[in-house]
Amino acid sequence: MTTMKSTRRRTGAGYSIPAAAEELDVPYKTLREAIKREQAQTIRFGGQERMTKREIERLRDLFSGTAA
After folding, report:
1. Domain limits for position 23
2. Which one of 6, 11, 15, 34 has the largest count of C-beta atoms within 10 Å of its C-beta?
């Protein structure tokens, strides 16, 4: 019997901030700081702050150092 790794990802309106940090493989505080400095954009959905898949892809470049 195999066990599945629990994920923070839910289907629907993007990623929660902790799930986005996990997806980007960066510390939660680093992502929060990027949001605070307006380097990362979030949306409000159902009273929660979320991050879109497109924003996650953009941030991969930012955090990997390959952003133009």
Report:
1. 15-64
2. 15
Q: Which of 67, 47, 68, 49 is nearest to 20 (CA)?
A: 49
CB 15 within 8 A of CB 50: yes
- Tens-place pLDDT, residues 47-58: 889 999 999 999
Give how far Cα 24 sits from Cα of 2, 16, 36, 47, Å.
25, 12, 17, 23
Q: How many domains does the chain have?
A: 1
- In angstroms, rounded to a whole number, what is the distance separating the alpha carbons of residues 23 and 39? 17
8 assigned to some structural domain: no
Predicted local distance difference test score (pLDDT) of residue 52 = 94
Assess if residue 25 is contained within a domain.
yes
The pTM assigned to this predicted structure is: 0.72
